[in-house]
């Protein structure tokens, strides 16, 4: 990461002082920011947890003047030994003598020794009282920087299941993003880049784990670095697309992509999108690669035009208070129109060009929230944000702001009429009036409980009538306010629904539709649609093929893929409804990938021959892994004593010597074993028709039968 700006450093110092009450040393501020990848919140959290993180890196001269126990050394400055040299005033040198050594301070070392927790300023262990701890800081040693792999038998792709890219140790969304992009026809075909192929793509038995493949090429030495950077990311992406299409492995790794030098971005996923687009646009200029992932937003402020392009939109949900879950439109409204939400400013904001594949990461900053607190739509229309609808959108925002103000006024009046406040207590006004009216009609009782005449009956009746009148007036007012609120809210919903979905009888309906293609609710959890959803074949259910909404939402066209921290893989087919609900509840951050109808209407391109051969070769390497895994003997169980007398001679003892005594005790078992060997040899000579398992079955019963030499059972 580049050096942080002075503005970031100043912000870090100021916020640290506000949050922690301590101001960091300015010379360490850039290190905190760089180690947090520019995330000021994380940098502040790191300083709060360990304010002295980098102070220990300084050279401490005082350590050399301390004794062996860390205390002060009264003999500091005295050399451990000294050699007497000749007196220069003497004409003759004396004989050499042994070096003299001063008395050692060992008898005086006890005063500086401590027991228990040594040094009050050091880091001490205690109860975990903070709400959040950096994962890579709380442990005494850093957790493994790799994601474990299961044995080969558990890494086999089952028929009909999708392949995927396993999570990165950095917990970035890049693997999930690549997996999802492979299921979208336009991005799949673009990333294959069939017009720029290698004659062969090399081979490496460990490529699937993240080892890059170096392929010998004829290069121009004048442009070697630039050409390498462009072609390397293109060719590695081609390998991954072909791999996801035809591999026999359950998963692969995007580590080779992560090791390629690209642009500087906030995340590895963004860096990949930036680097791939730059390389593809240079290799195939004019092919439209810059339209695949890049969206451009434009803002006109007081006549001055500015624009910004992004490949991953990262909106942050605002605090909605008691309101229900936000919609995707709510999130995008607050992001795109953040400088003019009420339409009252001299600001025009819109999207001037939109990516065919729209990538976004939505975050919920409220740590107390359960999940994302946002509804994830299966499809939405982008028309309201486009430049051609800029005027309509501004009018809509202005009208919505007026309705919001009207709703706020109605809510304030409703609170004033419906609630009472007295001496620090509050409650329902109607309930209080009902209690008061009930008290006015109560019959007085004698000490014995018998009814008595009410001497204040006339007064109570008048009071009851007045209270009843107030009660009726308040109730009518609340009913009127409720009707006004319903009317205003209906009007607000109609206004805010501008170009959200097609409606009958409306002059202008939205036309630019985007469909959800993939979700990642966690870097280890990915939801993708089956590719048959886009590439319809004859075996596909007709109701789904023609776009029947209910059938599509209940059919199991979605896959949930989970790769946990222990290397366990789970894949399950789920419905769209379940996928959307689970993704909204599993985490407070989610990756969403939407694609335009044009991107989905393409047909998946066939993998070129050179890439097909690469995947075929990798599949052969995987089959060798499976064979070796089956043939590999079980690991040695190191339990019991090692190196004892009873182990003497075992290292050079043959199997015959080891089992010799037992065979004498079990002649029947020895005879059966010899028969098995003979049968297996005979079976081998007869050819491939009869295998060793059949021979074992013929010789000694079921193939599962085994020989135990220990006790003869």
Automatic annotation (TrEMBL):
Residues 693-703 have a biased composition (Low complexity). InterPro entries: Ucp6/RUP1. Residues 93-110 have a biased composition (Polar residues). It comes from the Eukaryota. Keywords: Coiled coil. Residues 386-413, 464-501 form a coiled coil. Residues 93-121, 143-168, 630-649, 654-713 are annotated as: Disordered. GO terms for biological process: protein deubiquitination. Signal peptide: none annotated. Residues 658-671 have a biased composition (Basic and acidic residues). GO terms for cellular component: cytosol; nucleus. This is Ubiquitin interaction motif protein. It comes from Lasiodiplodia theobromae.
């Amino acid at each position: 990461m580049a050096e942080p700006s002075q503005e970031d450093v100043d912000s870090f110092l100021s916020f640290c002082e506000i949050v922690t009450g301590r101001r960091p040393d300015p010379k360490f501020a850039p290190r905190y920011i760089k180690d947090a990848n520019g995330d000021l919140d994380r940098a502040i959290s790191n300083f709060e947890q360990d304010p002295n993180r980098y102070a220990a890196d300084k050279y401490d001269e005082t350590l050399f003047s301390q004794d062996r126990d860390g205390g002060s050394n009264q003999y500091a400055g005295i050399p451990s030994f000294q050699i007497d040299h000749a007196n220069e005033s003497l004409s003759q040198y004396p004989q050499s003598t042994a070096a003299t050594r001063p008395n050692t301070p060992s008898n005086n070392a006890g005063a500086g020794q401590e027991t228990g927790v040594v040094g009050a300023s050091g880091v001490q262990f205690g109860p975990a009282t903070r709400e959040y701890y950096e994962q890579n800081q709380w442990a005494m040693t850093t957790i493994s920087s790799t994601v474990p792999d299961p044995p080969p038998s558990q890494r086999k792709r089952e028929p009909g299941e999708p392949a995927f890219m396993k999570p990165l140790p950095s917990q970035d969304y890049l693997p999930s993003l690549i997996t999802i992009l492979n299921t979208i026809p336009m991005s799949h075909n673009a990333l294959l880049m069939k017009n720029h192929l290698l004659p062969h793509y090399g081979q490496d038995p460990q490529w699937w784990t993240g080892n890059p493949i170096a392929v010998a090429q004829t290069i121009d030495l004048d442009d070697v670095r630039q050409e390498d950077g462009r072609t390397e990311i293109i060719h590695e992406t081609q390998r991954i697309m072909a791999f996801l299409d035809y591999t026999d492995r359950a998963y692969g790794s995007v580590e080779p992509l992560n090791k390629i030098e690209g642009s500087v971005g906030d995340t590895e996923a963004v860096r990949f999108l930036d680097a791939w687009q730059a390389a593809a646009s240079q290799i195939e200029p004019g092919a439209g690669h810059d339209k695949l992932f890049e969206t451009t937003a434009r803002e006109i402020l007081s006549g001055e035009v500015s624009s910004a392009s992004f490949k991953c939109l990262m909106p942050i949900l605002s605090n909605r208070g008691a309101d229900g879950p936000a919609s995707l439109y709510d999130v995008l409204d607050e992001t795109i129109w953040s400088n003019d939400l009420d339409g009252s400013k001299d600001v025009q904001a819109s999207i001037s060009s939109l990516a065919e594949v729209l990538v976004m990461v939505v975050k919920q900053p409220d740590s107390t929230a359960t999940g994302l607190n946002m509804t994830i739509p299966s499809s939405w229309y982008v028309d309201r944000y486009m430049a051609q609808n800029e005027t309509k959108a501004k009018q809509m925002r202005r009208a919505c702001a007026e309705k919001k103000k009207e709703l706020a006024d109605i809510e304030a009046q409703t609170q004033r009429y419906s609630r009472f406040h007295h001496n620090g207590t509050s409650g329902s006004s109607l309930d209080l009036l009902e209690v008061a009216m009930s008290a006015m009609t109560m019959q007085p009782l004698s000490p014995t409980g018998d009814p008595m005449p009410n001497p204040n009956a006339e007064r109570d009746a008048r009071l009851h009538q007045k209270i009843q009148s107030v009660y009726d007036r308040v109730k009518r007012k609340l009913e009127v306010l409720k009707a006004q609120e319903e009317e205003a809210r209906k009007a607000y919903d109609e206004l805010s629904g501008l170009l959200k979905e097609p409606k009958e009888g409306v002059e202008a309906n939205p036309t630019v539709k985007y469909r959800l293609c993939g979700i990642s609710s966690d870097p280890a959890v990915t939801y993708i649609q089956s590719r048959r959803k886009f590439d319809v074949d004859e075996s596909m259910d007709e109701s789904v093929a023609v776009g029947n909404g209910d059938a599509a939402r209940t059919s199991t066209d979605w896959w949930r893929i989970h790769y946990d921290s222990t290397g366990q893989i789970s894949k399950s087919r789920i419905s769209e409804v379940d996928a959307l609900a689970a993704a909204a509840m599993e985490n407070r951050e989610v990756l969403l990938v939407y694609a335009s109808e044009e991107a989905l209407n393409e047909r998946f391109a066939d993998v070129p021959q050179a890439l097909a051969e690469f995947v075929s070769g990798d599949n052969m390497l995987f089959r060798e892994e499976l064979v070796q895994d089956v043939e590999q003997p079980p690991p040695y169980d190191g339990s019991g004593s090692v190196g004892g007398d009873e182990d003497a001679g075992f290292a050079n003892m043959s199997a015959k010597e080891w089992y010799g005594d037992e065979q004498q005790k079990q002649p029947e078992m020895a005879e059966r074993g010899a028969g098995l060997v003979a049968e297996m040899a005979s079976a081998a000579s007869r050819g491939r028709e009869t295998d060793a398992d059949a021979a074992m079955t013929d010789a000694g019963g079921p193939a599962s039968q085994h020989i135990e030499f220990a006790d003869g059972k």
